[in-house]
Design brief:
It is globular, with a radius of gyration of 26 Å. It has eight helices and 18 strands. The protein folds into three domains: 129 residues, Rossmann fold; 73 residues, no CATH class; 118 residues, Distorted Sandwich (Coagulation Factor XIII, Chain A, domain 1). It is of the alpha/beta class. The protein is 23% helix and 31% strand. The strands form four sheets. It has a six-stranded mixed beta sheet, with helices on both faces. Strands 10, 12, 14, 15, 17 and 18 form a six-stranded mixed beta sheet that branches. A three-stranded antiparallel beta sheet has the order 2-1-4, with helices on one face.
Length: 395
């Protein structure tokens, strides 16, 4: 089966791995030849069928051991299938493991040439890219020392920088990006977006829902070696959260209950159907449900609601005095008919006070807005252009 450049096909892909326990390294084991128990094979992929068209961006999520990394290794040609078919068209560049394919005694610069050769580039082709790779990695003078002295973050910088600057039809990235610092992660995501815009097929494995929703049009959820969901990003991440049991979240308490007369004991975010969710679409309804508890009767209960960007910047704040006193518990809902936010991660912060606007935040909860093409930033101000009548002469 021949695939066109950038196309990926998995058909009934199956793969298991044998697990061998270590022999007993004891005097008794050496004298009497104690044998380690024979363990059954561990299935990594169970009849997985998947088709990715050229230029698609697909996120792969699932529990630890679900088969995500095994799938990438199969696609990269590192691990063969026991049954089924795999076909990838064009040149594949992968970033799967820290330092994979690097020579530990070589310098960072020498490893750039080594990686280029492994992917089929000649010396002149690598030479054209080497300075851009070094600049992107931000390794500076460390580029000319052996990589065995590098930290995990430095290896990620070098590995991603090489992968990002080698022309590829398919780019495979494991959650190795989680090792880098936040600024470099953002830089990598921008670079991935540029590669997507140029038509590269990208498969990204990550536990970071924010990273997945920012760059992926589609999500595949794996569980115990099977593909249990394959579809749009927002629905896929919600399916993943439900699988993990994290779609219902009371948020994170910020200050001790003893410090407040009135306490926010729970926050839940709900979609248009009233279901608990942590991923929303721009322009879709969002409902914030808060549960309050008064330690003693509060005459003038009030709530301050704030939405913050991932960088901690205030996006929105509103202060509301509630009707009547609060003597025990109450549940309130704040309705947002059309969420005017663009793709990214955001925090809802709630503060309950006795008639005062100022006060420490009580509880926060994070949510994501799915990325949509054609708009960037924080606030959704998308509109439409229309043609007006021509200007009159003399104006």
């Amino acid at each position: 089966m021949t695939a066109e450049p950038g196309e990926i096909t998995l058909r009934d892909a199956t793969r298991s791995f044998n697990v061998r326990a270590d022999q007993a390294h004891t005097l008794k084991g050496l004298l009497f030849g104690a044998r380690a128990p024979q363990l059954p094979p561990v299935p990594a992929l169970r009849s997985v069928t998947l088709t990715i068209r050229p230029g698609e961006t697909v996120g792969m999520v699932g529990r630890n051991g679900a088969g995500k990394t095994s799938t990438l290794k199969v696609l990269a040609g590192i691990v063969p299938l026991q049954s089924g078919v795999v076909s990838c068209g064009g040149r594949i560049v992968s970033l799967l493991e820290l330092g994979a394919g690097f020579g530990r005694d070589f310098s960072g610069r020498e490893n750039i040439y080594l990686q280029g050769a492994l992917y089929g580039f000649n010396k002149a082709q690598v030479q054209e890219r080497v300075e851009r790779i070094i600049d992107f990695s931000e390794l500076g003078e460390f580029i000319d020392i052996p990589i065995k002295t590098y930290s995990a973050g430095m290896l990620v910088r070098l590995g991603f920088s090489v992968a990002a600057h080698l022309d590829a039809d398919i780019l495979l990235i494991d959650e190795i990006l989680a090792v880098g610092d936040e600024a470099f992660q953002r830089k990598c995501l921008r670079c991935i977006s540029e590669r997507i815009a140029s038509g590269t097929t990208v498969v990204l494995v990550s536990h970071d829902a924010g990273a997945i929703e920012r760059v992926c049009q589609r999500v595949v959820v794996l569980d115990a070696g099977r593909a249990v969901f394959d579809g749009p990003t927002a629905e896929g991440l919600l399916h993943y959260h439900r699988l993990m049991g994290t779609e219902h979240s009371a948020g994170e308490s910020v200050r001790p209950a003893a410090d407040r007369a009135i306490e926010v004991i729970d926050i839940e975010l709900r979609d248009a159907a009233g279901r608990a969710s942590s991923v929303f679409q721009s322009g879709a309804p969002l409902q914030i449900v808060a549960a309050l508890r008064a330690r003693a009767p509060v005459e003038r209960p009030s709530l301050t609601l704030e939405v913050r960007s991932q960088a901690g910047e205030r996006v929105f704040l509103t202060f509301t005095e509630l009707d009547g006193p609060l003597s025990s518990t109450a549940q309130l809902a704040f309705e947002i008919p059309a969420l005017a936010l663009l793709g990214g991660d955001y925090d809802v912060a709630l503060t309950a006070t006795d008639g005062e606007q100022a006060g420490p935040v009580d509880r926060t909860v994070r949510f994501s807005v799915a990325h949509q093409p054609g708009a960037e930033g924080i606030v959704d101000l998308r509109g439409s252009w229309r043609e007006l009548e021509p200007l009159r002469a003399g104006l």
